[in-house]
Design goal:
Length: about 200
């Protein structure tokens, strides 16, 4: 079993990531290390800056996740401000903002930054869906009770972690990250990818 550190204060994110990386041979260790989340236009800029800042201070390989809910009718709000808006307005506040709004389209986005052997790699995942009319379900975290992924009638909070992972922005990004890690530790070609550091 290899080991990777997930730097996050969010236990829900950790649990979802662990369920994907453990079966492919990675023990995921959660560490809460506060890092600057810059005011930037995209999740990728926020994640990259955070990873570069942490890379100067933390030993070994790690991942971080910057994610958010982007609501079409609100011009992408709360987007990069999702954490702040969740703390201040919560799901109830979003439902109030969406009161009477017919266009319920929204999407969750997640950007992971992986620090592996001195390099930073970015993996992104998107999950389209819509904002529910009311809060439903007790699973998951954050905005899960008000988000219904495309093709579903249930909110993320009404699903098991496995079901959410199979559809979610985070599931998509972490599966891509997992594929990359697998490629790095088991080179099948004579020329190893730059990230390969032995088995
Ligand atoms: P970190 O320590 O990893 O930064 P955080 O919760 O502050 O944890 P972000 O800065 O990435 O995370 O903020 C993302 C916000 O969007 C936060 O309020 C989350 O609850 C919410 N969010 C992200 N992914 C979600 C998901 O899969 N389901 C529900 N809410 C989600």
């Amino acid at each position: 079993m290899r080991r990777i550190t997930f730097i996050t204060g969010n236990r829900g994110k950790y649990e979802e990531v662990r369920r994907i990386l453990e079966p492919i041979g990675y023990e995921v260790v959660q560490k809460k290390i506060p890092y600057p989340e810059i005011q930037a236009g995209t999740l990728e800029e926020v994640a990259r800056f955070g990873a570069e800042w942490l890379a100067e201070r933390v030993e070994g390989d790690f991942i971080i996740d910057d994610s958010g809910l982007f609501i079409h009718a609100l011009g992408g709000f709360p987007g990069v401000y999702s954490a702040y808006v969740y703390r201040t307005l919560g799901c109830e506040g979003i439902l109030k903002l969406m009161d009477g709004v017919e266009d319920r389209r929204a999407e969750f986005r997640a950007v992971f930054a992986l620090r592996l052997g001195g390099e930073i790699h970015i993996f992104a995942g998107v999950c389209p869906g819509r904002i529910a009319g009311e809060m439903r379900g007790t699973g998951g975290f954050g905005y899960d009770p008000i988000f219904v992924p495309e093709g579903e009638v249930r909110t993320f909070a009404e699903m098991s972690t496995e079901e959410k992972n199979s559809l979610s922005h985070r599931g998509r990004a972490v599966r891509a990250l997992g594929e990359y890690l697998k490629g790095c530790v088991r080179p099948t070609r004579r020329t190893s990818p730059p990230c390969w550091r032995g088995s």
